[in-house]
Amino acid sequence: MPPSMLDTIGLANSDNSNTNAADSTRANTSLLNTEPASDHNWKITLEGKVIAITGANRGIGLALAEVCLANDAADIFSLDVFEPGEDFLALQKSHPKRLHYVHCDVTTEDSVNSAIDAVITARGVIHGFIANAGMTKHQPALDFTRTQLDQLFNLNVFGAYFCATAVARRFIDLGIKGSIVFTASMTSYRPNRAAPSAPYGATKGAVRNMTHTMAMEWAKHGIRVNSISPGFIKTAMTYFVDQAPDWDLKMQYYGGMPRLADPKELGGAYVYLLSDGASYTTGIDIPVAGIVGAW
């Protein structure tokens, strides 16, 4: 692994048919046994867990990293295409040896595979993964160019797909009943009148559909796949939303909490889905949106 990849931590015949059938049944039963271990920890905690989060050098991803650390995660790895900024470095200083950065371009399969392998090389294991990296662009549907559409789908859909399938393969290889959580959006449920973007909503609808299908396919391995649909969250990309002159009118239409949420307010849902307490929770989406987008 190049040093730049990681920070300083771096049947047979009829006579045997009954026997074969019995062996097959035992094997299938073992494969499908996804019950929690007898020493299952029913406390909602991430104690001892190694979690990777894409796009965690800033914004929602960094806030999720902070909440996971506050809930006793052993290690958090940010897989991000951007170099860490001041906010990341400040959080890292507060949690020495627990918060790490790995360079990763989620739109490239090779980069994703290398980043996940770097996490496993550093800690020998990975328990949870948040496919959070994404982007949005708010403008009328008739104004989008093909280049803009490609950017949105490459990052929000293909990037999420590459990450989920790559980490699922590692879970299976390592025999880990891991958890994958996608960041979807309230716009996968209904239009966002405050800041419309038809392509963005389409990408997040795709993410929610992947959640259900992957959860079905990988349940036999004990791998859980869920998603979170945030509402209006205050980040560098959305700071302008509540400054619009008609913000109050739009909130009357939504009927929800008339404010932008702090990104850390999303964290509890992610912690639950990553924890052993959610061992029978898979294939669902949790809207964390102050009711916006849920109905």
UniProtKB/TrEMBL annotation:
GO terms for molecular function: oxidoreductase activity, acting on NAD(P)H, oxygen as acceptor; oxidoreductase activity, acting on the CH-OH group of donors, NAD or NADP as acceptor. It comes from the Eukaryota. Belongs to the short-chain dehydrogenases/reductases (SDR) family. Keywords: NADP, Oxidoreductase. The lineage of its organism: Eukaryota, Fungi, Dikarya, Ascomycota, Pezizomycotina. SUPFAM superfamilies: NAD(P)-binding Rossmann-fold domains. InterPro entries: NAD(P)-bd_dom_sf, SDR_fam. This is Uncharacterized protein. Pfam families: adh_short_C2. The keyword NADP applies. It comes from Penicillium salamii.
